[in-house]
Sequence to fold (536 residues):
Amino acid sequence: MSDLAAAWTKLETAAQGARERPIASLFATEPDRLARLTLEAPELFLDLSKQPWSSADLDVALDLVRASGLEAARARLFAGEVVNPSEDRAALHTALRAATGAAFAAKGEPVSAEIDATRAAIAALAGAVRSGAKRGATGKAFRAIVHIGIGGSDFGPRLVWEALRPVAPQIELRFAANVDPADIAQALAGLDPAETLVVVVSKTFTTQETITNAQAARGWLRAALGQAGDAHLLAVSAAPAVAQAFGVPADQIFGFRDWVGGRYSVWSAVGLSCAIALGADVFEAFLAGGLAMDDHFLTAPLDRNAPVLLALAHVFNRNGLGRPIRAVVPYAQRLRLLPNFLQQLEMESNGKQTDSHGRPVARATAAAVFGDAGTNVQHAFFQLMHQGTDIIPVDILAVAHETEGERASQAKLLANAIAQAEALMVGKSEAVVRAELAGQPQARIDELAPQKTFHGNRPSSFILLDRLTPRALGALIALYEHKTFVEGVLWGINSFDQWGVELGKTLAVAILSELEGGAPGVHDPSTTSLVTRLKV
Ligand code: F6P
Fold:
């Protein structure tokens, strides 16, 4: 048996001891539990003490990390080596947030000078638009941006905007992703084309949804401004020639390279709309937060390394205890899109059934992720979290200080975040419930007591930001990126490709032609009947 296989077996064996053991009991038996399982990382505090592992289990998990070769894999990632072998690519999103003048190379080719130049161009454009130096075709200043993109060309910028947008923004930023015509219609509704920039973001510039929405927006601009409307188009793409052929002026196309994965691209020119709408200084602070987390990931010892420990907590639940779902609940309305962002980051990166050599994986990979903002979710799926038949580990996020609004409301929000984590772990025993019901008829107590009992022992990780600053947001996103990377290394998979999204795309193209009157294809009876029913 290899060292890695042995380390996995040890972890899986150790986890069996955690299955029935009350998490709360570990605080009594392990006096240093809080010290060992809480840590300060850049811009955030992490508490993993409500996870089911004991101190000895954590040692076993750290042995697994060592056996997996994580440190060498991490070095390869930052060195720009090919970590995405199925596409023969580096994954160098970390270079995008490095300090100016860094010396990153992708597959040996220096990239930092180009990154610095793009960042300077973004800052220059953002400054010009915000100051009014750059105006629209009719001379009006820009007051709105419509950002068109999907997947990695959408989730990150949308999250950043929602998290950091001013209460009364100088420039309104809207998003359209879905090919559902309602999406672009709503994004454009009420805007003045003479005051609107349209930023089309697509790494490939071939994505059906994005090109369809971009055509609609281009038509909207041209209808109002004539051909001059094209001057309101900006593009962000790794295929600049295709963007130019679409009608985007050459000097309004911002590039990024194929070594930036879509779901890791918010740090690149993909963040252009945010840089304009929030200001280049805000975007730079966001990048600096990502860089701070990179430095932590690279230098902190494994047992004090936030991405490593967060990944291990997940792996302990996923592989050790067979838990296929996890929840993410930010107690911060401004972070309500974090679960959507993580769905792509974690599930597109690590939802794989083969390793990077094409062999079936030896064990389960990414869990399904879901979530939304607390406290709203307490009135939705938290019933199941507390008393459902499945145990669903949850990341609970909170921000100590409010961005706007009343301190008293913020205190209530924080109280709920802390209370839920406590309730999930500690529960409420049947004995306590029975004592509370004392005085009622015995039959009624017997009926009600089990229904009102909380068995507890439901794990959570707690992530606390001091304030939701651009820097903190950058650190938070980078934390999850590196967590995802660590998990991919442990599972032996390529976290940077996404072959699983291709089949549906191909079939949709064929079915579209059938819906539009083309020759019928060969399908199963159910598919044929739907095509027939929906033919235009
Ligand atoms: O969902 C599949 C995917 O390829 C993602 O990986 C990517 O983020 C998204 O489509 C959009 O791709 P593009 O930026 O090329 O339009």
